[in-house]
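The protein record passed on for reference:
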Amino acid sequence: MMRFLFDTNAVISLLGQKSVALIDRVLDCTEGEIGVPTIVSHELYFGAYKSQKVSFNLETIRLLLRDFVVLPFDEEDSRQAGEVRAELNESGSPIGPYDVLIAGQARARDLILISNNVREFERVPDLQLEDWTVS
């Protein structure tokens, strides 16, 4: 059963093997516990296509994503994201447009968002958030 949703920064940290703590936590999870939003896969593909090593990076993404559940964005996700965006705009502390979508999806599905971008996401009310890059 899915419990965790990775944001782009967490996936990039995992790809770059930048955090032993993050790798250990991922290895402790069972198959199907970690989801990657289609918004994150979009960001990864965008980065690959604008890079110098397009083929290599596309293959790296393909191999990585086969080990996780890629989670499509649905109507309830979009409703929650709209609510998050309105709440943050009203409080004067908006976050990036992709981060709003990712946070909305995590909130809609009652998943724990895994990110090392805690400063951005901690502004989102009722969002479960963990940073696995620190032990």
Observations:
- The radius of gyration is 15 Å.
- The mean pLDDT is 96.
- The chain has one domain: 4-130.
- The longest strand covers residues 34-37.
